Structure prediction request, 248 residues.
Amino acid sequence: MSKIFTLLFVIVALAYVFLLRSFRLADPSNSVNQQYRPLFLQSSVARSLFFLNRPGDGRFEYFSPEKDTVLVEIDYQVGRNPDERIEEWIANLVLETLRKDVEVVVTEQGEILDIEGLPDKALRSLARSTRSRVSGESRSYLHIVYISSSLDASSNTGLSLTANEIFIFKDRIYELSQKANVRSLIEQSTLKHEFGHLLGLEHVDSEDCVMSESVEVYEKRKYQFDAIPLDFCEESLEGLRRIEEDAL
Ligand SMILES: [Zn+2]
Prediction:
């Protein structure tokens, strides 16, 4: 009998290691990841067990009918304040995509060192150290960090590296325009774009869509700054509808 249990244990352990390795490979041609990841994302236990924490991995939690509010924690480096309309933008964004309420907490983080060009590793650790997540049964969680700029994605105005976190690169936005209203538009569209990634959306080809890659990497196209996209196009809206259906 004990041999059977040993055999079972070995099989389960091997399956665990196999899935863990498969899910950690970012290669889109990895078919195990493609096929089974969405199934595992449906369960918060499986998400923790397999460390599923890429942008989009929290999509079912955001859409879950059991979560009626999104707790939004915004932390900013001194001098990299969010736009004064940030709370209004977030509330509208969450209402438009999830039809839910928000609770927003904005905090200046005095202890973040004033350095430019942070590598992804430093960004991840910064996100961990500023996060004061208060878990709640009925709330999902979004963490937004306002910081100088990125080293690994130096042209980016924003970036998402994990399932619940967005970085906004304020110095990069500052370099792009002298005009406050244009900077404000860039910040708003970047925020919307990154939140789209957290909800499971990919880039689209159409450049007048907020999910166009050129929204977060402004060097790719010299924008006419009066035409910065602020809306999800039909392709992205259709994507959101499909994700919402899968979450029910
Ligand atoms: Zn993007």
